[in-house]
Amino acid sequence: MARKTKLRRIESVSVPHHHVIERIMERLPVRSLLSFKAVSKQWKSTIESRFFQERQSKHSQQYGDPDVLMVSSTSLRTLVFGSLPSSSVKMPWGNKTYLVCQSSVDGLVCLYDSHKPGFVVNPITGWYRPLPLSRLQERMILKDGYIELGHLNFKPGFGKDEFTGTRKPVWLYNSIDIGLENATTTCEVFDFSTNSWRYVTPSAPCRILGGFPTPVFVDGSLHWFTECEETEVLSFDLHSETFKVISKAPFACDASHWEILLCNLNNRLCASQLKLSDQVIWSFNSLNKTWDKLWSICIVPTWRSFGFPTWYALSPLAIFVEEKKKKKLLFYDPAHNHTLVLHDPETKSYDVAFSDESIGYPVCYFPSLISI
């Protein structure tokens, strides 16, 4: 009897409680967690629970570096820095060409095409969900595309209501450019609960820049440049679904729309401009509504070494923090999409992070188990 009691005490000390195991599991790579579902029914139940998946995703974003998803006409490929070469992601739509929204949300990315239904994809688990055509896409198909409509290429955004956790793809476009005269702009939001697009009214009060600048998601809102006498930044709150202009752009109003863009760096709204031989990057201070110059990067070495930039602004993707808290900027040239480059602002050096015949359209994401 004493022996059995002693064994029970040993077991109670040596076997950790399941909530302790959960805390450890939150810190593990997603691929490992997928394989651990076979360990036991309890582990499988934990890994598939929404509560665990949300915590794992939050931990990954707080303490890890993002991976890069490269979307091309032939494949989806993931790149993990400091690890193995890029790996392909198998998806069921074959070799159809898709573009990708600039912002990822909790490990999910949104693929789209002007004439085809889109997808929300988890590239690490292989989960995906098709999106029906928006009203804008239906009009483009009926009107035979952009040439007949005569407007710039508007792109959707992808973001999340930070209060409810609801993910939302969004189309915003200038109404008159597609033959609508009911308002200045038209906004469509996709509702996953009804699997349909719906209009948001009132829509944005000012025209937006189409073409190269794509909407970017930061801190619960999507952001666009406006097409006004003075270029401004328009924000769409995904919780209240309301628009407001939050700031003037930090550069002259005569900047070409090919030379400017918005991006998310370390969860801060940033603006970037190609100006002669420099790439200037500003960070938006949401408290006092001002722009702080983050970097001014001489791009002559990138032209000599990599043949870019051409006529587009270089597109910053992420800031990686290496040993001794050293920061490096990852970027690429959208018009010369062969190379991902790491720039060290301290040493002014440039290194090839990845190079191929085509890197497609890259987007950074934090691997997660989440689906919708």
From TrEMBL:
SMART domains cross-referenced by the UniProt entry: FBOX (SM00256)
Pfam families, per the entry: F-box, FBA_1
Residues annotated as domain F-box: 18-55
InterPro entries reported in the protein's UniProt record: F-box-assoc_dom_typ1 (IPR006527), F-box-assoc_interact_dom (IPR017451), F-box-like_dom_sf (IPR036047), F-box_dom (IPR001810), Gal_Oxase/kelch_b-propeller (IPR011043), SCF_F-box_component (IPR050796)
Protein name in the entry: F-box domain-containing protein
